[in-house]
Amino acid sequence: NWGFVGNVYFVENYGFSTGFNVKFMNNEYSFDRQPNDQITRTIKNQYLEIPMGLIMRTEKMGDISVLGNVSYGLGFLLNTKERNYDSNEHEITMTTNYNKIRHALIVKLGIEYYVHKSSCITTAIVFNNNIANIYAKNYPQDVLLNHLSLEIGFMF
After folding, report:
1. Cβ(114)–Cβ(63) under 8 Å?
2. Confidence (pTM)
3. Measuring CA to CA, which residue among 121, 106, 117, 113 is closest to residue 153?
4. Would you call 67 exposed, middle or buried from its count of C-beta atoms within 10 A (0-12, 13-18, 19+)?
5. Is 144 helix (H, G, I), strand (E, B) or coil?
6. Where do the DSSP E strands lie in 12-143?
7. Tell me: the pLDDT tens digits for 53-82?
8. pLDDT tens digits, one per residue of 87-102
9. End-to-end CA gap in the chain
């Protein structure tokens, strides 16, 4: 993943956070198509995600402050690649209809290390929880693309 973030503080340590992320989300899972016929599906989706949420941080403790962020992530499907294999490892073609929009709840906990005045290096643990199925309605599998990640950045 990569992206940009902007924080607008309405008081010193509380504010609004937004930006954009380009997310590459991969998954592999298996399901039964018929008795004794298991399909293994590998998906690679790319999303443009726009997070919008609240950011909170503590007062500086020396050169460090702790931050928390709770956001809603609105994602737009940019690209998808899919491969399907049957029980005999033969590649098969299946029609899949992906939702074009992804909704997520994003929870972040991290630290800011100030290197000069307001410039800081940030690092955080981020849980991105997909709220809805990635497939369009009436699809037999209910698949969510959730992930836990380490985020590293620089704020000006």
Report:
1. yes
2. 0.87
3. 121
4. buried
5. coil
6. 14-34, 37-57, 64-85, 91-92, 101-116, 119-130
7. 999 999 999 999 999 999 999 999 999 998
8. 888 888 877 788 999 9
9. 20
Contacts for 40 with CB less than 8 Å, ≥ 6 apart: 28, 29, 30, 84, 85
Cα separation, 22 vs 143, in Å, equals 20
Below-70 pLDDT ranges, the chain = none
Contact 40, 28 (CB under 8 A): yes
- Bridge partners, 71 (sequence order): 53, 106
Please give the single-letter amino acid code of residue 70. Answer: V
Buried b (16+ CB within 10 A) or exposed e, 19-31: eebebebeeeeee
Q: Which two tokens stand for residue 107?
A: 């929870």
Phi, psi at residue 142, to the nearest 5°? -110, 100
In this structure, what are the phi and psi dihedrals at residue 138, rounded to the nearest 5 degrees?
65, 30
Task: Kindly report the backbone phi and psi dihedral angles of residue 107, in degrees, each rounded to the nearest multiple of 5, phi listed first.
Answer: -120, 130
Say which amino acid occupies 10.
F
Closest CA to 151 of 58, 9, 13, 23: 23
Q: What is the CA radius of gyration of the chain?
A: 19
